[in-house]
Amino acid sequence: MSQITPAQQLFDLTGEVALVTGASSGLGRRFAEVLAAHGAKVVAAARRTDRLKDLAATSPNISALALDVTDTKAIPAALDEAERAFGPLTLLVNNAGIASGGRIVNTQDGEWEQVIRTNVDAVWHLSRAFAERIIARKGSGAIINIASLVAGRVGLSSASYAISKAAVLHMSKAQAWEWARHGIRVNAISPGFIASEMTDEYLASPAGQDMIKRVPQRRSGQPSDLDGTLLLLASSRASGFITGAEINVDGGHALA
Ligand code: NAI
Questions:
Q1: Residue 3 Cα, ligand 1 centroid: separation in angstroms?
Q2: 67 contacts 19 by C-beta, under 8 angstroms
Q3: CATH 3.40.50.720 for the 7-245 domain, yes or no
């Protein structure tokens, strides 16, 4: 019988080097803080570098990286810069994302393209560049893709956003399948409605308040509600045999 590992050790991320995209606010900022608090070195990437500098000032484990994830040509240089900060990357959290407007017939072409470039193309390109590095050095690592409750449900958000998140979820499974043999685990977190810059206005509106009444737990989430799932999927000690999974963190909303 193998030894029981105490929880503190199970979720100790010392030695891991993470890249978190969209880390200037909301979930991304929280992910960077939680990983760093558990010993990982974290490269916090986003466009708003002033906010990243504030974040980096809170922990010696966090470094700031300017990155627009839609600038796919800039990815190799950005990963080089990330690895100069703390060494070879072992964790990638594809968190950067944008919401979008209305019904399909009212969605402008530019809006559709921007959602797909940010929420889908960027995850494709960043994950591939990350995996190539791990495969080349015969290392191991993990990718956590932030999908959404709406990956499996339409009608709760705009169609373009729901479609982009369904693509992220399917991409996670395809990546998990292809890269398991290379020691890379890939999993998705599908949050329900979580308070953030993306959702604050909606959650405070009458429509948002109405929606909350249909969530089985009758509340929206806080970024901290994702801490445990993030740590579970980031730690190879805790989830070394989990790949291709989707974990809903939604107060039961997917059931409603
Ligand atoms: P947020 O708007 O606070 O965070 C999104 C972050 O992504 C921002 O920091 C933003 O600057 C960054 N970002 C957007 N485009 C970027 C680009 N081109 N390059 C670099 N960074 C870029 O919103 P939130 O809620 O923290 O969203 C984080 C992720 O969680 C997103 O992927 C979102 O779709 C997903 N999500 C959020 C839910 C919620 O209820 N808040 C529910 C389900 C999924």
A1: 39
A2: no
A3: yes
User: How far, in Å, is the centroid of ligand 1 from the Cα of 222?
Assistant: 14
Among 59-63, 98-102, 149-153, 213-217, whose mean pLDDT is lowest?
A: 98-102
Beta strands in the chain (DSSP E): 17-21, 41-46, 62-66, 91-94, 141-146, 184-191, 246-249
Q: pLDDT per residue over 106-128, tens digit each? A: 999 999 999 999 999 999 999 99
Which residues are designated catalytic?
161
**Which of 64, 81, 11, 67 is CA-nearest to residue 40?**
11
pLDDT tens digits for 160-208?
999 999 999 999 999 999 999 999 999 999 999 999 999 999 999 999 9
Q: If you ran DSSP here, which 8-state letter would residue 221 be given?
A: B
Whether 117 lines ligand 1, by a CB cut-off of 6 Å, is no
* Core vs surface per residue 235-253: b (16+ CB within 10 A) or e: bbebbeebbebbbbbbbeb
Contact, 156 vs 162, CB < 8 A?
yes
CA 223 to the chain's CA centroid: 12
Kindly report the pTM of this predicted structure: 0.98
Q: Which H/E stretch holds residue 234? A: helix 227-234
